[in-house]
UniProtKB/TrEMBL annotation:
InterPro entries: ABC_Gly_betaine_transp_sub-bd (IPR007210). This is Glycine/betaine ABC transporter substrate-binding protein. It comes from Kitasatospora phosalacinea. Residues 2-253 form the ABC-type glycine betaine transport system substrate-binding domain. GO terms for cellular component: ATP-binding cassette (ABC) transporter complex. GO terms for molecular function: transmembrane transporter activity.
Amino acid sequence: MVGSANFPENVLLASIYSQALQAKGVKVEEKFNIGSREVLYGQLQSGALTVLPEYNGALLGYLDAKSTATGKDAVNTELKAKLPAGLAILDSAAAEDKDSLTVTQETADKLGVKSIADLAGKAQDLVIGGPPEFKTRREQQFKDVYGLTFKEWKPTGDTTANALKDGGIQVGNVFTTDPKIVQLKLVALDDPKNLFSSQNVTPLVNTAGLDATGTAALNAVSAKLDTAGLTALMKRVAVDKEDPSAVAKSWLKSAGLS
């Protein structure tokens, strides 16, 4: 039984997992749009679900709110130690749906920036935007981790990507799989010091319900799925209104997994 949370990206990922398993002859039932992590986790523990698409950093935060691990390997090491018997994570994909600092392609070219670290010596001239709580949570971290002090912080909320394009801000907090990154040709800056916790797409499984064939099928998906690819798929689902199952099918075919 493959389950998903009740938001489009998770349904898409669950569709990919389900069809990848079926392509290898694994019998699958689907139970998508279930609800919150608390509900999903309980159903996985009980055996009502076998496979869930998870995000490693968020899952670790759920299991241990005090964890300070941020990099992918550190997060997964802690996850493996915290998960109860019977539950396991499989290989994490490179694909992440996480916070980022994002700029326009024009700004990236003009300033010569590819990572957050490249903003050193430039941030003091730049206006940054994001959700209202972004300044409270992150201002000191940017100073401590990267030595950055921005000129001004603007609460831009859901309009952050558009504010970047319109020039109202020069740097914005946009999630890495937001379709507007593709639509508006934005650039998510690398985060070499892992200020933002890793949120790698990772299968969470009930080991009693999954054999070696199923495990290999899901790990093969993780080996092929990256952030740019997932963002492009999400544009098809969220913007072009394509059916997640059809989008999953076409991706698996292009990845050689169906």
